[in-house]
Structures are given as C-alpha cells and as structure tokens.
Amino acid sequence: MKKLALALSVVIAAISSPAIAEGNAEAGKTKIIVCSACHGMDGNSMIDMYPKLAGQHATYLQKQLHDFRSAAQTGGKDGRMDPIMSGMAMPLSDQDILDITAYFSSQVIQVTEAKDVPELGAKLYKGGDVSRGITACMACHGPDGKGAELAGFPTLAGQHANYIKIQLTKFREAGRHNDLNGMMQDVAKKLSDSDIDALSKYLSSLK
C-alpha cells in the first residue's frame, strides 16, 4: 500500500508539472519501418511474444524506449536490458522516441477473441488475494485494463496473453526491474504459474 501511495503522488506531481514535449505522429510513421517487423505497421503485433503497441500510453512507451537505450549505454546496469530492443533503441534520439511513441499511441489496438479464460484471472485482477498479500491489479490498471498514463501504469487490455505471461514471469524472477518503486516485482513474486497464466488470459480478453 505504501508503494501504491507513492505512485499516486506521481499523478499529483505530473498534473502540477509543466507541459512536456510532444511527438509528431506523422513523422513517427516514417520512423517505425524497422519496428514494424515485430510490432506491425499499426502497432498490432502478429507475434504473441512481442507486445501490441497500438493505443498504448505515449509516456509509457517513451519510458520503455529510454530504459532500453539506457541499458544499452550502461551495459545493463541501468534501465531495461533486452537483447533486441536495447540495440534498437540505442541510436534513437529523444525526438525520434517522441515521434515513434506518438504514432503508436494514436493507433487502435485489435483485440482477438480469447478462449478458455480461467475465472481465477478475473478474481485476482478485480480483488487480488488478501490471504497471500496480493493487491488487486485494477487498483493501478483500472477496471477496464486501460491503466493510468499520468501514473505510468500501462494499458493491458487486449494485449497478447503470452507477452503478459513473459513479463510477469520476468518481474517475478527479477529479470525485469524498471517498474515504479518495484511495485510489479512485489506483486509478481507472490504469483504462481497458474496465477500468471490466468491473469494473462483474462487481460488479453478485455476489450
């Protein structure tokens, strides 16, 4: 709860801070050719191990690209290390990042029909599990999975189940640690494989 309170303070700070630089979606469209091989021309990746970027909050995408670039520059000491994305982000300028994220955030995510979604997914997402100290996911990501841009919480609705599963597993095993105040690591380390599978399928089913 303390970390959640800290995250909410970020929202207040963001609201009161000066306007940030904006990207140009049209310029971004010409810069995402390489990105499209994995993420699709419109940000709707056809490969389920890669995330759909369409409709994602621009500021969240910006943070991830900055973190990937930082990891490449520091040999993984800072940011978010990924063998593919860190290399892709390395040559990007700040303006490139603004333009690319403006483009992807302006696209519309395509949600595929999810089958065999375990009831456990909705239960954990909406109510958590008090007995295990698991906070409800919707506390940060919202009842509809749309997240909260000012707080840095991403949209998860309609995302590939496999991608979500991979990321939750990385958070649980501390293979990814660029989350705000370590919140996702704290939650994920309490999740079992079946919990992660259920949550991933539930989130992918949200429209």
Automatic annotation (TrEMBL):
Pfam families: Cytochrom_C. This is C-type cytochrome. Residues 1-21 form the signal peptide. Keywords: Electron transport, Heme, Iron, Metal-binding, Periplasm, Signal, Transport. It comes from Shewanella scandinavica. It comes from the Bacteria. Residues 23-108, 116-207 form the Cytochrome c domain. PROSITE patterns: CYTC. Gene3D superfamilies: Cytochrome c-like domain. It is found in: Periplasm.
